[in-house]
């Protein structure tokens, strides 16, 4: 079995995850000989994307006094087939200081197929100066499944508040479930010209249009400003996996 990764495990890089579930792929993606030189890292990414699910997890901290936390927060997603195991919510895509009072933080969680999402467990390790936490709600969006689920909480995860629990199992609110057309992963290859000044550090985005007039949402190709500086240099070829 071959489990290639070719991705960062770092809070400041990629999607900010420091643990990854890897799926086995055909050995052609791993063996580097003349026969298989055509297999690109992006094609590998497309292969792995087809075997896994990417979830966007939004977490709302309540707007109460001392509602924010400095503790290490984790989440477990439970599906009809399996669960994700403990996932540390380390790098918020929106806020540098995560889990602050009244704020919404966004994280990326990747997992092999766990089936239909049934419940979640969310909690923290009670470490840090300000460790108690008031959790308003969690929203989990799975574009490849075409489903967005809301998990209302509205309770403290604090040893000195409520029932003293610092982790909770939460079920989705059925009436707040949103279903839409599932997203599809595409491999996008961009060729930047070799003329003077051809490169850019701008936020490059893409929109795909179908034959029936339906188009995708606008999707940025870079995840952060560091990638914007790194990609789209003069005379370069950059490949991306984009779910739209």
TrEMBL record:
Signal peptide per UniProt: none
Classification via PROSITE patterns: PLAT
GO (cellular component) term, any one: stereocilium
Superkingdom classification of source: Eukaryota
Residue stretches making up the PLAT domain: 1-23, 53-171, 184-244
A Pfam family hit: PLAT
GO-annotated biological processes: sensory perception of sound
Gene3D superfamilies hit by this protein: Catalase core domain, PLAT/LH2 domain
SUPFAM superfamilies documented for this protein: Lipase/lipooxygenase domain (PLAT/LH2 domain)
PANTHER family tied to this protein: LIPOXYGENASE HOMOLOGY DOMAIN-CONTAINING PROTEIN 1 (PTHR45901:SF3), PROTEIN CBG12474 (PTHR45901)
UniProt-recorded name of the protein: LOXH1 protein
Species this protein is from: Anthoscopus minutus
Classification of source organism: Eukaryota, Metazoa, Chordata, Craniata, Vertebrata
Gene coding for it: Loxhd1_1
